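hey so u asked for the seq, here:
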Amino acid sequence: MSTETTLDKTPPPPDVLPPVPLSRGSLPRGAAPGVLLAFVVVAAALWQLADANPAVCGIGAALGYSVVIYAWSRAVEGPRGAFDRLVTAIVSSAFVLALLPLVSVLTTVVDRGLERFDSEFFNNSMLGVVNEGGGASHAVTGTLIITGIAALMSVPIGMMTAIYLIEYGRGRLARYITFFVDVMTGIPSIVAGLFVYALFELFYGPGIRMGFMGSVALSVLMIPVVVRSTEEMLKLVPNELREASYALAVPKWRTILKVVLPTAIAGIATGVTLAIARVIGETAPLLITVGITRGDNFDPFNERMATLSVYSYTQYQNAPGFAREAFVDRAWAAALTLILIVMALNLVARLIARLFAPKTRS
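ran it, C-alpha cells below
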C-alpha cells in the first residue's frame, strides 16, 4: 500500500470546541455588605417600630441575606461562586447570631448597672441602710480576698499536677489523676459548696461560715481548669527544646523551669485567667460557705464575708416592695462590677503573656 493511500485514510480532525470563557462576572465589591446592611436595617426597624421579637428579626435577616446573596451570585457568578457566597453567608450569620446574646447581656448590664455606678456605691457598705443609698465596698473587698486566696491555692497545685502528668507521669497513678481531674471538671458548683461545708462542719460544728471556706470551694472548681489548660500548653512545647537542653547536660527540673515553663507561660497565664473568671462569679457555693454580711469583714478566717455575686443575688431576692427599685439597681451595679473585674483580669493576663513570652527574632 502506498504512502499516499495511507495518508488519504487519516480521519479528519475533530470539530473545534466552542470558546469557553476563562472568567465569569463577579458581584460589585460592596454587594454583600450592602445587602447585609439593608436586612439589618429592616430587622432593626421591625424590632423598634413593629415591636417584633428581636430574635425572630435577627434570624429572619440572616435567612433573607443568605437567600438574596445566593440568588444574585448564581445569576452573575455561576453555581460555584454562588455556593461559596452561601457558605460564607451561613458562617457569618451563625457568628453574628452567636454574638447576639452576649451583646444583649452586656448592653442590659451596662444600661441598668450605670444607675448606681457611682462613688457612693464603691465607698459604702450596706451597714445601717434599709432603703436607698448604701454600696458594695464590702462585697468588692470580699470578692478580691476570697478569689485571691483561691487562686493562691489552686494555681500552684494545678500547675504542678499538669507538670507531673506531662513531664513525669507514667503508669497507673497518672491515669488515676487524669480520671479524677476529668471528674472534677464536671462537678456542679453547688456540690463543691456542700462538700466544703460538710468538711468544715466536722471541725467547727454546724452553722459555720467564713471566707476561707469559700476560697476552698472555689479552688475545688478552679484546680481542674488550671490543670487542663496547663496540660495543653505544655503539650505544645516542642520536644526539640527539651532534647536540646538535655544535650547540654541540664537537669530535667531545670529544663522544665527554664525552658518549658517560659515557653508556655503565655498560654498558662490565659488559662489561669479563665479559671479565675470561671469561679469569681459563682454564687451557690459562696452562698452556702460564706453567706452574706452587711458590713466590712477583712478576715477570711472569722465570720461571714460579702461577695459581689451573693450581694447581687440577695439584693434582688430580698428587695422589699417599698424600695424594690433601689435594691435592684444595686444588684445590677454589682453585676457590672463583676464584669469589669473579669475584663481587667483578661487585660492583666495579656500583659503577662506579652512580658514573659519567649522572645523570637523578627
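The radius of gyration is 31 Å. DSSP finds 13 helices and no strands in the chain.
lmk if thats what u needed
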